[in-house]
Amino acid sequence: MLNLGFVREESFATENDSQRNVIQSDSDMINASTHAIIPVTNWRSKFSKLWNTYQWRMRHYFYIHLSVFFINALVFGAIIWFIEDKQIPFIDCWFISATCVFTCGLQTYQFSIFKKSSQIILLIVIDIRYYDKYDSSDSNVTINPFYASLVISVSGFNQNGLSVWNNGIILFVNDIFMNIIIMLIVMSGTSLFPAILRGIVTLMKSLMPWKYKIYFDYILLNNHRLSTVIFPSIQTRLYVTITILMHILGITIALILDFNNPNLAMYKEGQRFLILMFQTINTRFGGYATINLSNLLQQR
User: Fold this and answer.
1) In 3-state terms, what secondary structure has residue 9?
2) Are 134 and 171 within 8 A, CB to CB?
């Protein structure tokens, strides 16, 4: 083959330094992309294999349930921490959030010092009546009666013991109506809840048309299989009877020990009975108190 005078330059056959650097950078970029894509592909294949071979176990429900509780406590604790402008330590925001999630009623900061938006969020975390307005004991701010009753109702039913007043509900010590209502709310969310739930199902069965009664019969007959708080009829009556007897026993012991307590001499006999009954019921469940518990300590 004739060359026809064409002169082959060296640059046509070899790369100069700049071209070599460009090619090397392109090669490095391709290799980096490949290294990034391959692990993702491996993870996707592993996840697909795990998903396809997964078998449900009842213990997994426990793990998921517990994880959701802890995550909710952390997330809502962080939200409250930001709402409070980080003036309250995160550990305390997390603590009161966990109190509402796990319904234990313990507090490191009074519920009343949190902002209204934080209180509403805590009520939502817990889950979501009418009386006269009561002033906060430490300020001249009047509490909205609907909001205060909402806090008492939701918190009492879920055994959190939260209050919008700095001194708890001590200001209700002489209010017979509020004492009875709070005790009923607290007991409705705990010891009486199975009986109330079964009663509602039974009532709905009697009110519904005949063709829908079978659904309520199914709930009543398969009680414990559907919910841990629905008992058979006989067990429900036995449970309520034993619960009432335990309350009567606790109140009787409290009356024997503290009815003549000199620290309660400022209250009339009827008020002392109401205080001890209220305290006996809430010690087991809601955590509310209409007196300072240190007043029950008799000086010797």
Assistant:
1) coil
2) yes
